[in-house]
Structure formats: C-alpha cells, structure tokens
Design goal:
- This protein has one domain (26-103).
- Helix content is 63%, strand content 14%.
- The protein contains 5 helices and 3 strands; from the N terminus they run E-E-E-H-H-H-H-H.
- The chain has a 3-stranded antiparallel beta sheet with strand order 1-2-3.
- Helix 1 packs across helix 5 and helix 3 (55-73) crosses helix 5 (89-103).
- The protein is globular and about 35 Å long.
- The N and C termini lie far apart (39 Å).
C-alpha cells in the first residue's frame, strides 16, 4: 500500500484497486457540521438531524475540532497535533482550514 499525491488528491494504491480521496471532500461534511454549530449556533442534536449524522459522530467531529483548535492556540504544528491526538496530519490540516474559515465568522 502506498500514497501518491496528485492534483490536490491522494491516491491510495492497493494491490487490486486504487481509491482517490479528494482533500476537499474530507472536510466538506466536517465544515458543514462546524459551521452549523459555531456560526449558526445550532445545538449538536439539531446539527445531527440536519446533516443526517448520528449525534455520536457530530460530537466526535466537534470534539476533535475543539482539540485541534486548542493545540493551535498552544503553538503546536499540524504534525505535532496529529501525533498528540493520534490522528492523521491531513485531518488536522482540514480542521485548521475550517478554523481559518470560521475565524472571520466569529466562531
């Protein structure tokens, strides 16, 4: 298994098949969830209903987003944050991009 960057996407090369993950699609649902919660001020259960996610999934996304924001405020890099939170750098970078977008919207 190997990862090959290409045109803003990541190709996961497997022996039998290849899966392409567009980075923008990784953050799309998370961005919508964070926007509804922090910009629109909706409750997590209302966000879950509107985005067709379970409340557990919404809580997980929002909790991880808050932890990434906290690490950013502490001055940690994306790589350090990913290591501390035991998640991928791509996920951390996605949350940091969402945080950048929300900063101008009083999140």
């Amino acid at each position: 298994m190997r990862f090959l960057p290409r045109n803003g996407s990541i190709i996961l090369a497997l022996p039998d098949q290849s899966l392409t993950w567009d980075r923008s699609s990784i953050g799309l649902e998370k961005c919508a969830i964070c926007h509804k919660r922090y910009v629109e001020g909706k409750s997590p259960d209302q966000v879950a209903r509107e985005t067709y996610h379970s409340l557990d999934a919404v809580d997980r996304y929002l909790g991880q987003f808050d932890r990434v924001r906290h690490c950013r405020r502490q001055g940690l890099s994306a790589q350090e944050t990913a290591h501390i939170l035991n998640c991928g750098v791509l996920l951390v970078e996605t949350y940091l991009e969402i945080d950048n977008e929300l900063k101008g919207k009083d999140a």
